[in-house]
Amino acid sequence: MRIRMKYVRSWTDRKTGRVYARLRRPGFPEISLPGLIGSPEFMISYYAALRGETPTLAIAEMTARSGPGTISNAVTLYLDSNAFLSRAPSEATRKRQASTLQKFCGLVGDKPLALLDRKYIDRLLANMPTTGVARTCLITIRPFCEWAVTQQMLAADPTAGIKIKLPKTEGHDTWTDEQIAKFEAHWTLGTRERLALALLVHTGQRRSDVLYMGRQHFRDGILTVKQKKTGVEVSMPVHPELTAAIAACPAEHLTFLTTARGAPVGEREFNKWFRRAVLAAGLPASCVPHGLRKACARRLAELGCSVPQIAAITGHLSLREIARYTAAYDRKQAAGQAMAKLVAARRFTP
Q1: CA distance linking residue 169 with residue 144, whole number of Å
Q2: Which residue segment(s) compose the domain that 330 sits in?
Q3: CA R_g for the chain
């Protein structure tokens, strides 16, 4: 399994098989990072280097703080356990959860795990900036606490019974056809912005999947991609408008969307770049990449495609999610059909 981290360059010594990693940030000296990429030792060094600290000193400090029985020691064992590695569905999720747990250790890592109680968890969640962040923190810490109970490190799970309900929302706005047309009128064929929109709206895939798409995923008019979030493999015919957008752009790299230097684009960097493109086209900031995935599902629903047919394109595992995406358009279509029947049954004569 290969783990990619920002500013990290790694290589393997062909003779020894040892993996080396260095942190290379523009304007800063290179720093060697010890340990296997993704290991607790590496993660401690990585974040210390980003803060401008010496990695070896950070490891020594953390080691001193994280003796047997401490929260940091338990988290280190948990991150190396099969319980953690098998639970997270994807590499991206594992990285995110490991980062959350390391931040948790930064707060209370030197405290005895046995003293971790419900009161502290409640205070921790209450101090989170948003309900969404609090929920993400809870669903990351809870499996760790459950594992600690099975290892007899904790007498009881301090997160048991805690529930965080997210406020009801329709999620990201679905792009309208008028908004898509306005974007296309501003960003013509041959621009990266137009290619990005075409990849999103004509495949119905998530941003994370679109960012690693390249010509190697297209063969004989068929796009085949394994989704990063779920591992679902999606295979679909390529839309002619997407074919035109791809043909209008250079074919120099393994991914369609790259930085100015030809490197793959990170998700956060892509969000900022795409937001600027949206604003330049005169569209509201609510027009985000995920709204184009929903627009693809909406278009399919308007054409009368069934929920399973739509899921075959978008790769959704939950058909309920597809039904939520397309509910308004299903009702609109059903209303039109119902009114047509009513008119036919009771013919109006002036």
Answers
A1: 29
A2: 177-338
A3: 25
